[in-house]
Amino acid sequence: MAMIKITSDNFDKEVLQSDKPVLIDFWASWCGPCQMISPLIEEVAGEVSDVKVGKLNVDEEPELTTQFGVMSIPTLVVMDQGKVVNQSVGFIGKDEILALIGK
Hints:
Elements: E1 4-5, H1 11-16, E2 22-27, H2 32-47, E3 52-57, H3 62-67, E4 75-80, E5 83-89, H4 94-100
Parallel strand pairs: 1-3, 2-3
Antiparallel strand pairs: 2-4, 4-5
């Protein structure tokens, strides 16, 4: 499944109203660990069809970043039926990303 860009404009539709769990990657272009984890997130997005994968730029979406209490990036948040069910802060490997989403 293709990755989606999550913004305050599409958050309700893409995340809260999603019929699938959603993995949100909170990132920024200036963040080294974010750049390292990005290809792994893209691989996961291409391999799983029952989880939606999205990226949320913390510089472009400060309100959503604050709403989720994100203090360090990369932060990965898994939401299901509008609730946070899992999260991770910092760089993690692909196996750990898959475990985070229950794969």
